[in-house]
User: Which sequence fits this backbone?
């Protein structure tokens, strides 16, 4: 694609935090690009499903003010470290359209979350995965197919209830299975958390 074509077909839809390709000069990428607002790639524009994605890509949907998602910060940190060991891309996805880049970065720092954080105020990633609450995780395989959508583990069986220790860790199991080829990707397990509100017209 030539530069002039690129300039005509790329439009900022949530400036400066997201790019969406419009049709006309090449293959349409329904996700476009997003800017990393925190983490070791802060300031870079990245593909949330990268072409060189490796064995898997993980999105964990959160908001800055969801107590259930925030309670999972230690587990999210540990999963992020494991993803780095396995060569799996993991993104923390802030879904509240009112959250700024500075607020998302401050939230990540407050909870010790080191991995890349991106904003999805337009809910393009929410729609792609079918996420409905925070925290909720989506795991895609190397071909970009959604293989798991649901809870991180079973420590929160219902609103207002929390176990001291998880007996099922579906997100970890899905990552390990795709990255190592050992074990099965678990079936989707409904997540319990803060409702992702639909955007207005």
Assistant:
């Amino acid at each position: 694609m030539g530069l002039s074509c690129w300039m005509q077909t790329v439009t900022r839809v949530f400036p400066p935090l997201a790019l969406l390709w419009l049709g006309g000069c090449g293959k349409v990428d329904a996700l476009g690009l997003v800017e990393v607002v925190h983490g070791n790639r802060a300031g870079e524009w990245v593909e949330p499903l990268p072409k060189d994605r490796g064995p898997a890509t993980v999105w964990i949907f959160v908001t800055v003010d969801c107590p259930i998602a925030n309670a999972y910060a230690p587990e999210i940190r540990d999963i992020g470290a494991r993803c780095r060991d396995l060569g799996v891309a993991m993104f923390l996805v802030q879904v509240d359209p009112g959250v700024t880049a500075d607020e998302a970065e401050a939230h990540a720092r407050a909870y010790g979350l080191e991995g890349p954080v991106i904003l999805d105020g337009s809910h393009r990633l929410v729609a792609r995965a079918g996420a409905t609450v925070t925290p909720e995780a989506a795991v895609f395989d190397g071909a970009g197919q959604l293989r798991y959508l649901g809870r991180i583990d079973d420590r929160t069986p219902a609103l207002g209830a929390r176990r001291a220790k998880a007996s099922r860790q579906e997100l970890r199991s899905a990552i390990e299975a795709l990255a190592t080829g050992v074990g099965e990707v678990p079936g989707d397990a409904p997540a319990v958390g803060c409702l992702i509100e639909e955007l207005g017209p």
In short: The domain at 35-195 is CATH 3.40.30.10 (Glutaredoxin).
